[in-house]
Amino acid sequence: MKNAGVFFSLSLMLLFVVCCFMLLNIQIEDYSMLQRRTKNDFETYTPVLYVTNKIHSYDEVDKVCVENNNGKGVIKLSDAESDTYLYKDKSKLMELCVIKGMQPDFSMGQALMACDDFDVKQDKNKIICEINGVDFYVELRSGVAS
């Protein structure tokens, strides 16, 4: 009878340990999935939000436009003293600020973040973008001067 009690206690303890390891394994898998999802969301939506906020900050009549540089779309943001260009170079979203009237040298831009895909067009009061597979547009509240 004494051996049955010890066997039952050890069996119960073994069951508890096995359940703990299973629970720990499930939590590790969930955590790694959450990390992958967070990294993917960061890489996808951070450039989208950056470009959207940058366009909104320059949203005045004739201050935001899309230009072509060697067949690639470039967002040009202007103010009284400078022009800022947003574009993709290799696998990075780049930003270049130059003094008003100077010719931009796109090799001198500052890398902001990873960007695998960047395409931009302008349609009247909209800047239509595709960044990292996300299609979106930014409506210019100021409009375009006629």
Description of the structure:
This protein has 1 helix and 8 strands; from the N terminus they run H-E-E-E-E-E-E-E-E. Helices cover 38% and strands 36% of the residues. The mean pLDDT is 90. By secondary structure, it is of the alpha+beta class. The strands form 2 sheets. A 5-stranded antiparallel beta sheet has the order 1-2-3-4-5, covered by helices on one side. Strands 6-7-8 form a 3-stranded antiparallel beta sheet, with helices on one face.
Distance between the termini: 98 Å
- Which percent bin holds the helix content? 25-40%
| Low-pLDDT residue intervals, each spanning 5 or more residues | none
Q: How many whole angstroms does the radius of gyration measure?
A: 27 Å
Keyphrases for this structure?
146 residues, alpha+beta, five-stranded antiparallel β-sheet, 38% helix, rod-shaped
Question: Secondary structure elements and their pairing?
Answer:
Elements: H1 2-57, E1 64-69, E2 72-78, E3 82-89, E4 92-99, E5 110-114, E6 118-123, E7 126-131, E8 134-139
Antiparallel strand pairs: 1-2, 2-3, 3-4, 4-5, 6-7, 7-8
Summarize the structure in short.
With 146 residues, the protein is α+β, with helices and mostly antiparallel strands. The protein has one helix and eight strands; from the N terminus they run αββββββββ.
